[in-house]
Design goal:
about 210 residues; hypothetical protein yedk fold; nine-stranded mixed β-sheet; about 40% strand
C-alpha cells in the first residue's frame, strides 16, 4: 500500500537523468501527495520524456464513474499482467512517479503510527506506475496507479507492502515503449533495505495537517 508520498524537488532536476525532458507543470507538489490529486508522472512518448499531471487513481476505460479510481491507487505487481484493468497499461502505459519519500502506517493496537521512508544516498526516488485514458462526455482524463510489491526486511516491520522503486537505469528500461514483458516483470521486486531509511514521525510535515490513509 502506498497512499501518501512526498514530492518537493524542482522538476528541472530530473533533466540530468532524462535528457530533453519536457515539463508541463500541471501537477501537485508538496509533503503530502494524496490520491485523487493530479500528480507528477514521467512518461516516454515517441522517444521523448515528458513530465505532466495525471489523476492519481487509475480509471479503466470501461468504468462508468471516475470514483473507482480511489480503489485503484495501487496495483499489485504480482498480478498486473493478468488483471484486466492493468494488462493494457502494463504493455503500453508504463510510467514513473518521482518522489522524495513515502509514508506507511504501522498499526499498534487500535492506533496507526506514520513513518516516513526515504533513500539513504539520494534525495529522489522513482515509483513504478501505470497510466490509462478514460473518456466521458467528450473529455479525456489520464489517470495512474502505483505498483506495489512485498515489503523488504526493513519496511516489513511497519507494513507488509511497499511501492516498487526503480533505479535511474531501471527507469529507462521501464519507460521504453517496446520492452520484453519478462524483463519488465523482473524489475518489480522489493528495493534493498540497506539503501533506505525509515523515520517514525508524530505528525506529517504538511501544510494540510495530519491525514490518515
Amino acid at each position: 500500500m502506498c497512499g501518501r508520498y512526498v514530492f518537493t524537488s524542482e522538476p528541472g532536476e530530473l533533466k540530468s537523468l532524462f535528457p530533453g525532458l519536457e515539463i508541463l507543470e500541471n501537477f501537485k507538489q508538496g509533503k503530502q501527495i494524496s490520491p485523487g490529486q493530479d500528480v507528477a508522472v514521467l512518461r516516454k512518448v515517441q522517444n521523448r520524456y515528458r513530465l505532466s499531471g495525471f489523476h492519481w487513481g487509475l480509471i479503466p476505460p470501461w468504468a462508468k464513474d471516475k470514483k473507482i479510481g480511489y480503489k485503484m491507487i495501487n496495483a499489485r505487481s504480482e498480478t498486473v499482467r493478468e488483471k484486466p484493468s492493468f494488462q493494457k497499461p502494463f504493455r503500453n502505459g508504463r510510467c514513473i512517479l518521482p518522489a522524495n519519500g513515502f509514508y506507511e502506517w504501522k498499526t499498534i493496537g487500535k492506533k496507526k503510527y506514520p513513518h516516513l521512508i526515504t533513500e539513504k544516498d539520494s534525495k529522489e526516488m522513482y515509483l513504478a506506475g501505470l497510466c490509462e485514458e478514460w473518456k466521458s462526455d467528450g473529455t479525456t482524463l489520464v489517470s495512474c496507479t502505483i505498483l506495489t510489491t512485498s515489503a523488504n526486511s526493513m519496511i516489513s516491520e511497519v507494513h507488509d507492502r511497499m511501492p516498487v522503486l526503480l533505479t535511474p537505469e531501471e527507469c529507462k528500461v521501464w519507460l521504453e515503449e517496446r520492452t520484453d514483458e519478462d524483463q519488465l516483470t523482473s524489475l518489480l521486486k522489493p528495493y534493498p533495505s540497506e539503501k533506505m531509511e525509515i523515520l517514525p514521525i508524530e505528525k506529517l510535515p504538511s501544510e494540510e495537517g495530519f491525514l490518515f490513509p
